[in-house]
């Protein structure tokens, strides 16, 4: 493996081209990132079960033809607005179920004991809808790259270990073990916990309100997370651009 001596940078400027590709601007150049291919099952569940897929992506230098590339106008603003609305709805719902009296409490108003009894059916419906969504997303027409597909670079995260060690040092002693296990197992355990936990809470509540918020919303946010959120733009993450032979 060739040692990388290139400087690291943050990815802050990005735009969405379609379901699969993102356009980023770093160090004075423009790159198309092959970010979330719906025909690759490893991109579902935020790449939970494929560690490498969340640390590096193929990047195509398109600086010379940037003006010819169509992007979704104001996508960044739309994404930020969607996150704000999600936050407001979540705060309202939690405040309601924790503080409001029964006559005004959504959890009590939407209570139905049949939800808990039919938990197998609910899980089956979630899985069937997931398969339908995979089929629909995989069938969508994808943008045709303006450069050769085999002429790519690699955008790779450079400070994963540094951030992991920092989280370990700042964590409580009873959870510190988590940061000492291999990254793949970290993602697997986190993914399973984030998926199974909310599903159980939503179903066990026997409330349509909680079922929607905890089970349906959280499950599909995690399931489709790679297509909704742009991981490289997350705070404190550093990247570098490498040639294929430098990996």
TrEMBL record:
Record field: transmembrane: 81-101, 121-140, 184-203, 209-229
Source organism's superkingdom?
Bacteria
Keywords noted in UniProt: Membrane, Transmembrane, Transmembrane helix
Q: What is this protein called?
A: DUF443 family protein
Q: Which species is listed as the source?
A: Xylocopilactobacillus apicola
């Amino acid at each position: 493996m060739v040692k990388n001596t290139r400087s690291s940078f943050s990815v802050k400027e990005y735009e969405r081209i379609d379901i699969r590709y993102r356009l980023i601007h770093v160090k004075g150049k423009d790159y198309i990132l092959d970010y979330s291919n719906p025909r690759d099952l490893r991109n579902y569940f935020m790449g939970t079960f494929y560690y490498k897929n969340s640390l590096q992506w193929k990047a195509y230098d398109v600086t010379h033809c940037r003006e010819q590339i169509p992007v979704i106008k104001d996508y960044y603003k739309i994404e930020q607005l969607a996150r704000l609305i999600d936050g407001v709805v979540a705060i309202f719902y939690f405040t309601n179920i924790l503080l409001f009296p029964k006559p005004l409490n959504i959890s009590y108003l939407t209570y139905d004991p049949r939800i808990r009894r039919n938990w197998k059916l609910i899980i089956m419906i979630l899985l069937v809808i997931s398969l339908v969504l995979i089929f629909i997303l995989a069938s969508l027409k994808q943008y045709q790259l303006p450069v050769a597909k085999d002429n790519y670079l690699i955008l790779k995260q450079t400070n994963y270990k540094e951030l992991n060690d920092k989280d370990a040092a700042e964590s409580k002693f009873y959870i510190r073990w988590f940061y000492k296990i291999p990254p793949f197992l970290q993602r697997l355990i986190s993914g399973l916990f984030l998926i199974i936990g909310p599903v159980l809470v939503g179903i066990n509540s026997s409330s349509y309100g909680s079922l929607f918020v905890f089970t349906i919303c959280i499950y599909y946010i995690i399931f489709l997370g790679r297509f909704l959120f742009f991981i490289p733009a997350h705070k404190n993450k550093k990247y570098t651009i490498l040639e294929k032979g430098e990996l």
